[in-house]
Structures are given as C-alpha cells and as structure tokens.
C-alpha cells in the first residue's frame, strides 16, 4: 500500500453493499473482504470510523412508507443498522482488530452510547469505531449520520462505499450513455439533484468542508486505493 493520504477517515458502507449480490441479509464473504481491508488500513496507521446503513434488513421510509408511522419506521431502520454494526464488529474482531460499537440510541447491554470524545479516544488508540442508529433521530438518513459523525470526529474525508462506482449525470442502469464525473462540486450535486447523498447530508458536508469520495464496494481494495490517493470513483468537494 502506498503512503496513506488521510490520517482519519469516516467510511460509510450501505447495508445493501454488505448483502452482496443478495441485496438482503449479510454476505460474510463480502464482509470478510471489507474487514481485511480495514485491518490493513489500521496497520498503516489510518484511523477508521464506520457508519453502516440498514437497508439490507429494513429501509424506514421505503419499507414503511404509507403503511406505518414514519418515525416508527425510521426507528426500525436504526435497529437494522445495529445488526450490521454487531456483525461487522464480530468479523473485525475475528481478524484481530480492536473495535468498539457506539450507538446514538442507548443499548448498553450490547454497545457503548455514542460519546464524541470517547470515540476520538478510541480512534487515537488505533481502534475501529462503528457508529450505529444513524443520528438517533427519525427523518435523517444514515448518509446524514455519516457526515455528522465525520464532522464531530474531525475526519479528513468521507469514503462513501456503495453499489455504484461513482456519480453520474443520470441513472447508468437506465441510461447506457450516462456520464460519470471524476470531480463534482457540492453545489452541482444539489442543483442537479444527483443521487450522491440526500440533500441534508450534502449540505452538511458542504458547510463543514468535508470532501466525499463515492466509489464501488464491489472491490473492497478500492478502500485502500482511495486512501492511498488513487483516482477512484467520484470526488465531491467545494469550488
């Protein structure tokens, strides 16, 4: 691995990415590959915080939309993220990585409550910190939670690992001629309504001047490539 370009990163992993090709549940082969890469990052001295989505089990607004109260559906989504956090923590621990799970909603029997200074202390000690339950509030996505935690822990960059290899001007699954951006500004993302993150997450990232790099998790080695400064995926940043 080339010399890391970032000291502290916030890695956002979608729940669907952890499900592999199945889209639901957990693919432990995929998770093992991701955790191998995270371990190598720690060995290189990179501090890693992780926010995990819950879409492989439950997506609040999508799965509960029109059928149940939005707040309750979102709380169910927060619980789904904790399932992923615990599974990811277990795989990391099997690989010898020291890890802590912190949740925005207290569940002390299985995780630490989120405390900013404690999270930073863990990172400085070389521990991976996995943040669960999103922001702890309904109506906010886990992408927004990722930006919020990145700002709170003073991360150098947000690594957005998804099931797509970058930001396009239209849906590449629908339009075979969709154009992929190597670099795009927050303003352009908001003006074009591009599906990088939701508008709240994008605005929060812009306000705090935190660059976002979106790339495909299909090849977990992309995490190392991005941290090493390779041009992978799409960089979203200010002017």
TrEMBL record:
BP terms from Gene Ontology: 'de novo' CTP biosynthetic process; UDP biosynthetic process
Keyword field contains Ribosomal protein: no
Protein name (record): Uridylate kinase
Residues involved in UMP binding: 54, 74, 135-142
InterPro entries: AceGlu_kinase-like_sf, Asp/Glu/Uridylate_kinase, Uridylate_kinase, Uridylate_kinase_bac
Activity regulation field: Inhibited by UTP.
Pfam family membership, one: AA_kinase
Keyword entries, A-Z: ATP-binding, Cytoplasm, Kinase, Nucleotide-binding, Pyrimidine biosynthesis, Transferase
GO molecular-function term, one example from the UniProt record: UMP kinase activity
Domain Aspartate/glutamate/uridylate kinase: 7-218
NCBIfam families: pyrH_bact
